[in-house]
Design brief:
This protein is α/β, with parallel strands linked by helices. It has helices at about 1-10, 30-35, 50-55, 60-65, 95-105, 120-135; strands at about 15, 40-45, 70-75, 75, 85-90, 110-115, 150, 155. The chain has one domain: Alpha-Beta Barrel (TIM Barrel). The protein is built from 6 helices and 8 strands; from the N terminus they run αβαβααβββαβαββ. A hairpin with a 2-residue loop joins strand 7 (about 150) and strand 8.
Length: about 160
Amino acid sequence: MIEKLCVEYRIGVAFHNHARGQSAYWQPEQVLAACQNRTECMGACADAGQWARSGLDPVESLRKVKGRIVSFHLKDIAKRDDPDCRNTVFGEGEGDFAIVLKELKRLGYRGLTTIDLSTTLRLCRRTWPETWRLSRSRRSSSSTPDEPHRKSGKLA
């Protein structure tokens, strides 16, 4: 039924991986098995931080689900291979998020990316400006988080 609606309305449905022991889809192979012989509208909500938390290599995991990434969650985690570790400020943890972003670019991913902090507002306030700076470091723009970078009338 869900697959039929995906095709009819051209919407994506994603299996979101959570950490080992918290989700039936914590490994890329489990997501791929759930999507086997189904429309390409069904795939992964790839969460690189959860893969790292589970002891998996997030870059290898992305490569495995290539072509089936419906959406992507970006986070940094305090400790690899620890399903109960907390999220942390980007660049302070063991999530290798910069390498993960490079791999997403190499794979040609252009879909929805969500910054997934799942923590206190205080940490969000501390994290957002640094994340914005890192995401803009390759562009020459005077934009701020309150003034999105615009190019040809579209958000870049």
